[in-house]
Amino acid sequence: KQEVTQIPAALSVPEGENLVLNCSFTDSAIYNLQWFRQDPGKGLTSLLLIQSSQREQTSGRLNASLDKSSGRSTLYIAASQPGDSATYLCAVRLNTGFQKLVFGTGTRLLVSP
Amino acid sequence: ETGVTQTPRHLVMGMTNKKSLKCEQHLGHNAMYWYKQSAKKPLELMFVYSLEERVENNSVPSRFSPECPNSSHLFLHLHTLQPEDSALYLCASSRSTGQLQETQYFGPGTRLLVL
User: Fold this and answer.
1) I need a surface site. Which of A73, A94, B16, B85 has the fewest CB within 10 A?
2) Where are the beta strands (DSSP E) in A1-113?
3) In the predicted structure, residue B72 carries a pLDDT above the cut 90
4) Which helix (H) or strand (E) holds B111?
5) Do residues B5 and B23 lie in contact, with contact meaning Cβ atoms separated by under 8 Å?
6) Taking the CA of residue A18 as centre, how many other CA atoms within 13 Å lie in the half-sphere pointing to its CB?
7) Measured between CB atoms, does A94 come within 8 Å of chain B?
């Protein structure tokens, strides 16, 4: 059974810092991995999607990497801003059966001005 | 605006009540999903509908009953819920589940409290 873990559970940093969020998964048989952002009281917004054959994806100040063989992904946020404060969720899409998304518990990020 | 709306946004109900959650998507998608997000737990997939047919029921208790009358609307009917059912219920939609690369678009969720 695929399990996704995110560390740390919560993170508080001053504005301007570069930071790394970690995601690990137990079964490397994945089709892709996705990072989402969730703001309080709102749904999820997709940030980056990495196919299993890719090593990284970049969007603006965000960079996500994937090491499928070791079951790890990182989300790098450069020059953090207060508007980056949110919960960040990692999800893997299974490569078998229904190919559903399996989510981690998230990292709650607070960026202080 | 994600194109996926959910009503109500907040709901308080007693264990003997019957209520329904509604989801509507304006994206032309043909697959819709219900997820449950409990405190300190990962999102759990509950149901999936593709082309208005249920294709996934993730061992959800029968007190939750989904309905998909057309590809734009999805309901979750609730009856005799338990306090542990209190959670954020998220709806999502995507293109046909036959395409592996489709992205799911999420609604804002309904915050449910069962007393």
Assistant:
1) B16
2) 4-7, 10-14, 19-25, 30-38, 44-51, 56-59, 62-67, 72-77, 86-94, 101-103, 107-112
3) yes
4) strand B110-114
5) yes
6) 6
7) no
Distance, in angstroms, between B105 CA and closest chain A CA? Answer: 7
Contact A41 B100 (CB under 8 A): no
**CB-facing half-sphere around the CA of A74: CA atoms within 13 A:** 8
What mean pLDDT is predicted for residues B59-88? Answer: 94
Q: Alpha-carbon distance A101 to A36, whole Å? A: 12
Higher pLDDT residue, A56 or B55?
A: A56
d(CA A51, CA B101): 9
Strand partners, B36: B44, B89
Count the residues in chain B: 115
Q: For the residues B55-73, what does the mean pLDDT come to?
A: 89
Stated length of chain A: 113
Which residues of chain A, if any, have pLDDT below 70? 96-98
A45 touches chain B (CB under 8 A): yes
Distance in angstroms (rounded) separating the CA atoms of residues B6 and A37: 18
Whether residue B107 and residue A43 make contact (CB cut-off 8 A), yes or no, is: yes
- Confidence (pLDDT) at B65: 94
**What 8-state DSSP symbol labels residue B102?**
P
**Would the pLDDT of B102 be above 70?**
yes
Chain B contact for A89 (CB, 8 A cutoff): yes
